[in-house]
Predict the structure.
Amino acid sequence: MASVATPSDLTITPRDQRFGRGSKTERWWLAGDPIGTALYNALSATFPKGEAFFVESVRAFREGAEPRLAADIKAFTTQEVMHSREHVAFNKRAVDAGYDLSRLDKAVDDRLAIVRARHPMVSLAATMALEHFTAMLAHELLADPRHLAGADAETAALWRWHAIEEIEHKGVAYDTWLHATRDLSRFKRWSIKARVMLLVTHHFLVDRAKGALDLLAQDGISGPKAWARLFWFSFVKPGMMRKILGAWLRYFLPRFHPWNHDDRALIEAEEKALGYA
């Protein structure tokens, strides 16, 4: 079993917000930087279908869940549906700014088709791993204002809102996994979790890099220069991927649980900054 559980006083609260409606988003919305813009745009391109997959994977194992987990799954579903809606709108603004997202969209379809061809438990394990990725990225995004420094205000608000809710529901897929695998041995459960995370990590890094490079090529940035600048942004400055390494490694600890690290203080501070509290 995990060393701690989701906090008993945690409430997952869907915040029905809309961003950037009726406004134009500049092509390089992140401080005029094509590299950072490409990375965030490539990530956003995965969200509408990816988050629908998360919901599908978690809901497949809700039968028999205790009332608390059932309520969390319902709130998780509501949050993810709204995230998908807002990223559909954001992605449309990226298209309006001149980007072709069709190849990125097809890559998501292809990747999800491979996972869906496996046992539903694999989909849940992949969702659990990807939810840890989104929670790590969300924590770092809110903890260090430099990640969105100089960004378009509406777009920055969208990513900060999304990050709040990713932190808030970071334990739902994991708790569903514990429920779904309750008859497995601890070692078997850990083995599946660890192997799937290693696979997910590889695909996440490779697929997001390919997506960002596709978008950069549309800006006339390609070859070694594109790779070097992408690596620098991701691993050096501001270096989000480097900064989440410790949190990534903790996933493999035998008694890991997403709420072993309670970072709700970030949610509270960000809600005040965005005017929700």
Observations:
- The two ends are 35 Å apart (CA to CA).
- The chain has one domain: 34-274.
- The chain has a mean pLDDT of 96.
